[in-house]
Request: fold
Amino acid sequence: PVPYRGQRNSALNLRYIVQKIASIKGVEYDKVVDVTYNNAKRIFLKR
Reply:
């Protein structure tokens, strides 16, 4: 993410990534969080 460009990436930077995705897609921040969470559950909790 821009504020930390050139530094080691961390999960703490996910909020900046989510903000950018929301901006590009023209949707709310919480919508990106919900969709991402549900996709991760669907993929990683598949049995």
